[in-house]
Amino acid sequence: MRIFLLTGYSKRYFYLVENLQNKHTICGMAVQKAKPSDKPVINPYENDRLYQKHFKLRDDTENYYYKGINPDNILENIPHVFVDCDTLNQDRTVNYIRKCRPDVLISFGVTYLKKDILEICPDNSYNIHNGLVPWYKGSSAHFWAFYFLEPTYAGCTFHKLARRLDGGEVVHQCVGKLEIGDGLHDVSCKSLMLMSEDICRLMDILDVEGKLNSTPQKGHGRMYLNKDFRPEHLRLIYEMYDNKIVDEYLKGNINCGIPDLINGLKYEGGLL
After folding, report:
1. Residue 1: closest CA among 18, 21, 24, 33
2. pTM for the whole thing?
């Protein structure tokens, strides 16, 4: 079974790549990097104290959980092309996917896929969303789950690729184990790592069965955009709760619901 990956250039995405290539054939990748620019990128928040703290903590936490993951080393053994937000949907990428002749396509950490890409994707095409649908769609879903004091919703969704952003039928969902001492970024990393490992098992099922069961999304959530985030939102997490929202939840001081997750692995039976 030939798998094609459309993915971002980050350790969090390449944890999945490394796990997949150990058991399956990755026939090609389109890896999205930041668009080169002759002009300096102006970030109006870069000098904000909490903003700096939040993203430094994210980088430090990811370096801890994804220690040993080196995207460049992994790519040495996988055919690939590099793209950016402008070239992702252009003919060069479309033609490269066609050339690779994938049986399965998985997108993870790239910008919005347009019609030309979607039309040539195989039937078994999926997306990994860093959040639980339908409750938290769009950008920074784990952050918003914590902001609204719902750490139990800081999970991941594996769904069928669809024209509507994060709107495809759901194959599998998971949330990393919440433990005392976990901050926002710990839960994010644990959920992503668990999803990456679960996807390897799902690919085993797909290889044998030829399909994965999926469930249409029910209910309504919210679509979060990049423009929705402001550094002021960080005050609740870091100043009011000192990044100990999980601790407060486990101690019973925060009352939030438990999401009804879709478990695609229940179909594996005695396969694994």
Report:
1. 24
2. 0.93
